């Protein structure tokens, strides 16, 4: 099997990680493209003796640590000032959050995460603890949940409330979601893709975003369909079935970028 064939199944999930790390689909996908270009240009330098997924993420982190994509000719002009600001902010995404995303969102062990960011296991564990402490101190938000499966909705609501946030409503249809969003103006939206009336959570979110800006986390059992890099796609995405730690990390990172870019 060729190296490309080995890496292909892991690309959607690298896009997910890159977008969560940068807070932007545009910049996350750009770093993934740069990673693939580096692999194609020098396949002999691809990490050997490790799982292909680990090697892929290791190459990504090398690009992430050394690249300045927003300074490249033509890059900024095609994406606008807001995206440039996101890219510069992304460089400030601290190591604790990288460690948390690698373990909680991407499911790497602390040993593997240490390999990826160049630290030992004890250091990674300490970084994750630091990130969790930061989450505890994070500004509280009003959260709208768009989910038509009652058990999943209750599970998400419990996680959100345990993090100290308020749940404004649980909407099960596109119409409900838009109505509740306009009534309460939440600071975060958690949205399933498929809703009770066969409407789309994506369409519901588009309707909401047409009225006001708010960070959004999508939830789906089929992440590969929304991580192609070929069209406008979610920046933050959780895969069903999810772990509590995954939801916690995604909420924290979405609010991290929202708070960091908010006017003083």
TrEMBL record:
InterPro entries xref list: CheY-like_superfamily, PhyR_sigma2, PhyR_sigma4, Sig_resp-reg_PhyR, Sig_transdc_resp-reg_receiver
One Pfam family of this chain: PhyR_sigma-like
Residue list for modification 4-aspartylphosphate: 192
Residue ranges of every copy of the Response regulatory domain listed in the record: 142-255
Domain of life of the native organism: Bacteria
Keywords: Phosphoprotein
Keyword Manganese attributed: no
GO biological process: phosphorelay signal transduction system
NCBIfam families: PRK09191.1 (NF006623)
Protein name, UniProt field: Response regulatory domain-containing protein
Origin species: Sphingobium yanoikuyae ATCC 51230
